[in-house]
Each structure stands twice: as structure tokens, then as C-alpha cells.
Design brief:
Chain lengths: ~350, ~290
């Protein structure tokens, strides 16, 4: 009893000292709580469906950010990894009758392999060349998919895949849980030494090379990691929609991912996730004017960018938090002195 | 023979699009994803001008090109110029712009396929294949425009300014060239060329709100294959890819599905051997 009380007190102290002091951390904590507690409030199948799809795309957008935001390797063909993940899990499921928990990791592995195949020629390219070339890969794969309709289902795709779980709530928790875990992992990766090297490659590749770091290896690693997470997203998507179709490879798919990534703020991981959670449900809720949906989407993106070219989330973050000029610790914007070193913030 | 004609037409279209695309990329470092959307808008403009208002086709074409140019300049002034320092933001701003055009066209004209009547009707038969006068006309006009563009770039003061800005923006600025005005002018030329491509090609294709996607990919492939910023490269690469597409479509069963794949695979193979494209100069790394 006493031990539990002590533990609770300690937990409370940690929460008060580490989470409640910064609005961004409060928001992240609330985000986790709300997502996990959502079914207690409402179990509307439509709402659940939107959240599940949003979670899948959040993984995808975050994985794009891991590659393009951090290492600066602008990938305009991110749909490739998504599509490979989706098709690989679907093919394994239909032809080899594997269960979803086996096909999704294998699909992700296929996407990693694709990441390697794409990454190696792309190592020689820079900036715009890279962006324009990566756009080509999903189109090539799409051509192959259409040309082999017996194997890949052609235009109709592969349908009739089983869901991971048959209950509504089971599915919800599997998808939302996976999303939260994977995004946390990605965020941790970018926070680690590897992430710092990724970031450095984006800023100045030559300087990183000069520091004795094998940038080639790290760039390939970024392609593989990004492919892995996007592949998982693809597999999850295929098993949720119960179909893997060519729409997963479309140009508009790649573009949408780029829009999410840049809209939310590049090189943040949480930015793209937040962008998906804002834009995707928003698009669903304007469904009563279906013909204006894409138009509204594009106009919103354009207007927000005009005022916040760095992306929505970094803009918000800078508004609610200040960095201490002396010890570089984040503080809530309403404070006058730093919470650690009490230096003046203004 | 069919292969030759299709290849020539596709190649000319890609050449015009790719050259105008690399023009604005060279001068302002803007990757204009909406480039082919302007091409689509021009096609639809002609459709409504000649179909609804009964204008004669040549006047319709002129007005369409002008309308598209104005659109392009407005978009540049109000949407792209304010955020030009943020490359990623510019990129998705142009994607969003293309989507807006697509949706606007979809709302006004619905998603149905439309056709535009040809400038000159009729055809002649050459070696057993029908050659439409419109095809000959399109090809001729494209060559003329490319010639004019070459004269503009190589022989005039404006062309010199454009080329030097493309080479080194800062130095050009130091030499007293008004960089932002030049970017504006180049944007105008570039978009006008895209509109023009749409205008000459509209009678040969079917119009649909999604018609900008496929040429966009091929145009990018041409630009990359030929080398960014190299006009000669774009020209050669456009015909290489145009003929590849035509060959694949006519010679391989189910080729229509594979034409994009084969052309893009060629591009990637070339890039493996020559990362800067066929005629590209590898840029000094900007730091």
C-alpha cells in the first residue's frame, strides 16, 4: 500500500515536473490519452474507421519525414513503399495463405528491399534530380502491375483479404496502438545519434563526410528505415481495406504524402503525424460536398503555407514555447524567466 | 510509319513542356509541378472558346495562351513569390495549385472527356498510313516555336540575362540584373509555352481533368534525362522518350500499360551511368 502510494507520488512529481511544464508535451500526452480512450466515448463505426485510416496514413507521413525531412532526400515516390508493402502482404496472403501478422512484417521487408533497390541509384543524385527521379519508380511498378493482371489483379487489385481482427474495437486498438508505437520509435530514431547524422546530412553533406562519417551508408539506412515503416503502413492498409489496388501507387498518393509532410513541418516527425490527423479527418467531414473536397484541401494547404512556410506545427510550437537563450531549454511562452536557469527569456 | 508519327508528336510535346519547365527551374529554382496543369487549362480554354463562344480556332488559341499566361503570372506573384526561400513550401504550393486547377476544371466542365476540333480537317495518305494535317501542323508549329525560343535565348539581351541568371543567380544580381523581375518574365514565358503546347495539342488528344498527370511524369523524365537546365538535352531526350513510348505501344502486346515503365526505366538506366543527364553540366554544389 505504502509502496503504491510512493510510486503514485513519484509518478505525479514526474508528470508535473516533466510533462505539465511544456504545452507541447501536454498536447502529446492528451493526444495519446484521447486516442486510447476514444472508444469509451463513442463507438461509431464511421468514426473508428476514420481514425484507423488516419493512423495508417500518419505512419506513412512520418516515414516520409524520416527520409525526406531528415536526410533531405526529397522522395516524390513514397507511394512506392506503400504500394510494395500493400501488394506484398496481399500476394503472400492470397497465394501462400499466410495470416496478417505474418504478411505485414514480410511486406515491410519487401519494402525495405525496394528501399535498397531505389536507394542505390538515387545515391548518385541530388536535390531536384532525386525528387524527379523518385517520382518515376511507382509509375514503373504500376505499369508492371497493369501488365500482369493474372498475378496482381491488374486494375481491380487483389481483394478479399482478411482483417487482422474481426471485432471493431480489436481493430481499432491494433491500428492505433501500432501507429503510436511506430511513431514513437521513429521519433526516438530521429532523436538518437543516427537521427542527428541524418539531420546533418541534410544540412551539409560535405561537412558530414569530412567528419569521417560514411554518408552513403546512412543515406541507404534512411531509405531502408523509411521503406520499412511505409511498408508496414501499406500492409496495414491492405488488410484494413481488404484490397490492395493500384490506387496505392498513384502519383496523387505520393503527392499527398509530400503535402502532409511539408504542411505539418519537415524534420519533426510529430509535424506530419499532426498534419494527417488534422487534414485527413477534415477532408472526411466535408464529405457533404464531395465535389469540393480536393479543392478545399488544396486551398487550405496553399493558404496555410503562405503564412507559415515552415509548416503548421513548427509555427504553433514557436508561438507557445520559447527557448532559453542561455541553457537552450524549452519554456512555455508565458514565462519571463527560464524554468531551469532562471535567465531572462526576453 | 505510325511509330514515327506518334513518336514525333509525343516528342515535340515533351520537348516544349520540358524546355519551358527547365527554363523556370534554371532561373528561379522553382520546380513547377503545376506546369502541365497550365497545359491542361489551355486545352480547356480552347474548348470553351471555340465550342461555346464560336470563336475561330486561331483566335481561340491566342486567347487561351494569354489567359494561361495571366494565370501563371498571378499564381507566381501571389502564391510562389512570397515563399520562395522555402523550397519545400514552393514545391507543395505548386502541387496544391495543380490540384486546384484540376478541381476547378472538374467543377466547370465535369469529368467527361472532351475533344477539340482540328484547325485543318482532313488527312493525306503516306505509305499506307493516314497522316492528319493537324499532326503535321502541330509538329511544324512546335519546331517554329523552339526556333524562336532559341533565338530569344541566344540572340537577345533578355536571353542573355536569363542564361546568366540560370548560371549564377548571385553574380547576375550583382551585375545589375533585376533577379525577381527576370524570374517573373521567365515564369511568364514558361507558362505561355506550356499553354501553347496545350493549345497545339488539344485537337490531337482528349481533354480530361486528370490529363496533366501523365505528361508531368514524362516531362520530368525528359528533363532529368536531358540534364536539368540544358535545352539541347531536353530536346534530344524528349524525342528519345517519345519514340520509346511509341515503339513500346506499337510493338509490345499490352504496351499501352508498359509505355511509361519502359521510358522511365531507360531514364533510370541512363542516370546510373551519367547522374547529371545526357547533356547536363553537374552543378557546383550549392552550400
Amino acid at each position: 500500500m505504502v509502496a503504491a502510494g510512493l510510486y503514485l507520488k513519484r509518478f505525479y512529481t514526474v508528470v508535473r515536473g516533466e510533462v505539465l511544464v511544456l504545452p507541447s508535451r501536454v498536447i502529446v500526452a492528451l493526444f495519446f490519452l484521447v486516442l486510447l480512450g476514444m472508444p469509451l466515448i463513442s463507438q461509431d463505426p464511421y468514426l473508428i474507421r476514420i481514425i484507423v485510416l488516419t493512423s495508417i496514413f500518419a505512419i506513412l507521413a512520418a516515414s516520409w519525414d524520416l527520409l525526406s525531412g531528415f536526410t533531405g532526400q526529397m522522395n516524390f515516390g513514397h507511394a512506392l513503399f506503400f504500394g510494395v508493402g500493400a501488394y506484398a502482404s496481399a500476394l503472400l496472403n492470397i497465394h501462400l495463405h499466410m495470416p496478417p501478422w505474418g504478411t505485414i512484417p514480410l511486406g515491410a521487408m519487401a519494402a525495405v528491399l525496394t528501399g535498397l533497390i531505389v536507394g542505390i541509384p538515387c545515391l548518385r543524385l541530388k536535390h531536384t534530380y532525386l525528387a524527379l527521379t523518385t517520382m518515376a519508380f511507382p509509375i514503373i511498378l504500376m505499369g508492371i502491375v497493369f501488365a500482369l493482371p493474372d498475378f496482381t489483379g491488374g486494375e481491380l487489385g487483389i481483394s478479399g483479404l482478411p482483417r487482422i481482427s474481426n471485432s471493431l474495437l480489436g481493430n481499432y486498438y491494433i491500428y492505433v496502438g501500432t501507429m503510436l508505437v511506430l511513431c514513437t520509435i521513429m521519433w526516438k530514431i530521429t532523436d538518437s545519434n543516427t537521427g542527428i547524422i541524418f539531420h546533418a546530412i541534410r544540412e551539409d553533406e560535405l561537412a558530414v563526410k569530412a567528419s569521417g562519417i560514411n554518408t552513403t551508408r546512412y543515406k541507404l539506412l534512411a531509405f531502408c528505415l523509411s521503406g520499412f515503416f511505409a511498408g508496414i503502413a501499406g500492409g496495414l492498409y491492405a488488410h484494413y481495406m481488404r484490397i490492395a489496388g493500384p490506387s496505392t501507387l498513384e502519383v496523387s498518393m505520393s503527392f499527398t504524402v509530400v503535402i502532409w509532410g511539408v504542411f505539418g513541418g519537415m524534420a519533426t516527425i510529430y509535424g506530419p503525424v499532426a498534419a494527417v490527423f488534422i487534414l485527413f479527418p477534415l477532408l472526411e467531414f466535408v464529405r457533404f460536398w464531395p465535389e469540393y473536397r480536393t479543392l478545399i484541401f488544396a486551398v487550405i494547404v496553399l493558404l496555410i503555407l503562405l503564412y507559415m512556410p515552415e509548416g503548421l506545427i513548427p509555427w504553433v510550437r514557436d508561438k507557445i514555447e520559447k527557448e532559453c537563450p542561455r541553457c537552450k531549454v524549452k519554456n512555455i511562452a508565458t514565462r519571463d524567466t527560464c524554468r531551469i536557469c532562471s535567465a531572462s527569456l526576453n | 510509319m505510325n511509330i514515327l508519327i506518334t513518336g514525333l508528336i509525343t516528342g515535340s510535346m515533351l520537348a516544349l513542356l520540358a524546355i519551358s519547365f527547365s527554363l523556370i527551374f534554371g532561373v528561379a529554382r522553382i520546380v513547377n509541378i503545376a506546369h502541365t496543369a497550365f497545359y491542361m487549362v489551355a486545352g480547356y480554354c480552347i474548348f470553351s472558346l471555340t465550342g461555346k463562344f464560336g470563336l475561330n480556332p486561331v483566335a481561340g488559341m491566342m486567347i487561351a495562351v494569354m489567359v494561361v499566361t495571366v494565370f501563371g503570372l498571378l499564381a507566381y506573384k501571389f502564391l510562389i513569390d512570397p515563399i520562395r526561400e522555402h523550397e519545400a513550401a514552393v514545391l507543395i504550393a505548386t502541387i496544391a495549385l495543380a490540384m486546384i486547377f484540376q478541381e476547378a476544371v472538374m467543377l466547370i466542365y465535369t469529368g467527361d472527356y472532351r475533344t477539340v476540333s482540328a484547325l485543318i480537317e482532313g488527312y493525306f495518305t503516306l505509305m499506307g498510313v493516314k497522316v492528319f494535317y493537324q499532326q503535321v501542323l502541330t509538329f511544324g508549329v512546335v519546331l517554329v516555336i523552339l526556333g524562336l525560343l532559341w533565338v530569344l535565348l541566344m540572340k537577345t539581351k533578355l536571353g542573355l540575362a536569363i542564361r546568366s541568371t540560370a548560371e549564377d543567380r548571385e553574380v547576375a544580381n550583382l551585375m545589375g540584373m533585376n533577379e525577381s523581375r527576370l524570374a517573373m518574365i521567365t515564369m511568364g514565358i514558361s507558362v505561355a509555352l506550356a499553354g501553347f503546347t496545350g493549345a497545339v495539342l488539344a485537337p490531337l488528344t482528349v481533354l480530361s481533368p486528370y490529363m496533366w498527370m501523365e505528361p508531368l511524369i514524362m516531362m520530368m523524365a525528359v528533363v532529368v534525362l536531358g540534364g536539368l537546365g540544358s535545352i539541347k538535352g531536353s530536346f534530344v531526350a524528349a524525342y528519345i522518350l517519345g519514340f520509346t513510348e511509341a515503339l513500346v505501344v506499337f510493338l509490345i502486346p499490352k504496351g499501352a500499360f508498359l509505355k511509361g515503365s519502359v521510358a522511365l526505366t531507360i531514364m533510370i538506366l541512363v542516370l546510373l551511368l551519367r547522374p547529371e543527364g545526357l547533356f547536363g553540366i553537374s552543378f557546383e554544389e550549392e552550400r
